[in-house]
Amino acid sequence: MKRILMIAVALLPLMLMAQARIGIVNSQQLFDLMPEKAAAEAQLKTMSDRYHAEYELIKSEFDKKFADYQTVAADASTPETIKERRVQELQESDKKMREFERRAANDIAARREALTKPITDKIQAAIRQAGVQGNFDIVLDTAVTPVAYTGPSTVNLMDVVKAILGL
Fold it and tell me: For residue 26, which of 4, 75, 100, 109 sits 20 to 30 Å off, Cα-Cα?
């Protein structure tokens, strides 16, 4: 009797899962279809291009200082103090260049997050709405969690979500 009860308790989750309504969507495909995506990408490209232009200015200054250093270093009559000062200037310029790269990358990442979050929030709300409307217990996002197999009872909600989003 005890064994039968343990088997019944062990099989209960499986029996409940057999009754669950499961839907699937691909949020990345939805994101790619969103009209707001193009505007966000354009803003990011503009920002990235500005940072790239500024980086090129910083790099050209560094390259000029490096060329000056090479000239000074090749001249045997140049005192060591001047050579050391030029090396320090190069190191400072390199540090500034690396710091600028780091800050630019962080700024671009933050801007990307700020631009894409409203789009992804809109998609998630539409997915939730489709799940509620269809009375689904689970909606899996195949862009996040690859699904190796879906049975005939699994419902692809992409068309429903597209309709909700007006796509």
Answer: 109
